[in-house]
Write a structure and sequence with these properties.
single chain; alpha/beta; Rossmann fold; Dihydrodipicolinate Reductase, domain 2; 2 domains; 7-stranded mixed sheet; 6-stranded parallel sheet; 9 helices; protein dimerization activity; NADP; NADP binding
Length: about 375
């Protein structure tokens, strides 16, 4: 039997050995353990960068994505908390020392990528913008603020068209919630064709969405349960291994939790449609990395499954895995460490008359496309 530790590493490396799907369908990406020496992007005519929260999982993924996509920069600052200051990282063959995040960190910084939590973003995001930096923030701090674009580059790039690099004016741009990004990457191409009236989403969210400590606890609990021991429950209040439960976000007075309401509110803002009906149920499942979602769509005009499949095959950032004959559809393991969002189980909703409804199943790496990759793609739109 594969040990939990080996399984953990296997997930983080993309799980290629367990996949029967040809991974050449996905864009190749280096492992998150990469020393970031794949390509050199240092250029004098390029923007200066800062990565806030560089020591965290998403911060490290920022570096991986920047290198993987040969993002041009003339300088890069590694910023984190006081306790992380002094750590050294080698990025594209150059050594950098992590600096403490302060109000003076953003002088001469053109683009600041933030992934250090909402409270840090609320404090330092406006400071950076006032210094002339364009802030791409991965937290929920500014997502619903009027005047702050909430952007998925493949979906609504026009929302940030007014923000220009080098204009001397700083700005805030928000990265949507990971579940929203993964959902709308697949739903939007269909929405453009037939207009979605109502969307019902059920999510199956991995441990990585709750951070490295949750992943470590899942690994530990797996060993403990298999050895007949009582599982350690520090991150979550209940056993996670071999179990699933409602997402751990706080439950609101309306009975929805905050994660579910993010899907509702963010979809309306990104699609610029306050009348779109969205409901969600978000579940935490014992998977190391990458989220899965079941999405039911009701359309204003007919859209059959064959046309939907063709639309999704042509959609940027989407790969279709929809092999009914071999019962092969998207899995979290196959999309871990991959850029593309995978979609399958594309079928007519038999509960609706005509071709006015579809069911689809979507999987995406929430650290990559659900966080770091989407943020870097936003930064690319500024170039």
């Amino acid at each position: 039997m594969q040990s939990a530790a080996v399984a953990h590493r296997h997930f983080l490396d993309g799980g290629a050995a367990a996949s029967s799907f040809p991974l050449s369908h996905f864009k190749p990406t280096p492992s998150t353990a990469s020393p970031f020496s794949v390509r050199m992007s240092l250029r004098e005519d390029a923007p200066s960068l800062a990565v806030v929260g560089v020591t965290g999982a998403v911060g490290q993924e920022f570096l991986s994505v920047l290198s993987d996509r040969s993002f041009p920069y003339r300088s890069i600052k590694m910023l984190a908390s006081k306790r992380s200051a002094g750590k050294k990282y080698t990025f594209e063959d150059n050594e950098y020392v992590v600096e403490e995040l302060t109000a003076d960190s953003f002088k001469d910084v053109d683009i600041a990528l933030f992934s250090a939590g909402g409270s840090i973003s609320k404090e330092f995001g406006p400071i950076a913008a006032n210094c002339g930096s364009v802030v791409v923030d991965n937290s929920s701090a500014f997502r619903m603020d009027d005047g702050v674009p909430l952007v998925i580059p493949e979906v609504n790039p026009d929302a940030m068209a007014h923000i220009k690099l080098g204009s001397g004016k700083g700005a805030l741009i928000a990265n949507p919630n990971c579940s929203t990004i993964i959902c709308l990457m697949a739903a939007t191409p269909l929405h453009r064709r037939a207009k979605v009236l109502r969307m019902v989403v059920s999510t199956y969210q991995a441990a990585s969405g709750a951070g490295a400590a949750a992943m470590e606890e899942l690994e530990l609990q797996t060993r403990e349960v298999l050895e007949g021991k009582r599982p350690t429950c520090k991150i979550f209040k209940q056993q996670y291994a071999f179990n699933l439960f409602s997402h751990n976000a706080p439950v609101l007075p309306n009975g929805y939790n905050e994660e579910e309401m993010k899907l509702v509110k963010e979809t309306r803002k990104i699609w610029n449609d306050k009348d779109i009906k969205v409901t969600a149920t978000c579940i935490r499942v014992p998977v190391m990395r990458a989220h899965a979602e079941s999405v039911n769509l009701q359309f204003a005009s007919p859209l059959d499954e064959n046309e939907a499949r063709d639309i999704l095959k042509k959609a940027p950032g989407v790969v279709v895995i929809d092999d009914r004959a071999s019962n092969h559809f998207p899995t979290p393991l196959e999309v871990s460490n991959k850029d593309d969002v995978a979609v399958g189980r594309i079928r007519r909703d038999e509960s609706q008359d005509g071709n006015y409804g579809l069911d689809i199943f979507v999987c995406g790496d929430q650290i990559r496309k659900g966080a770091a990759l989407n943020a870097v793609q936003i930064a690319e739109l500024l170039l």
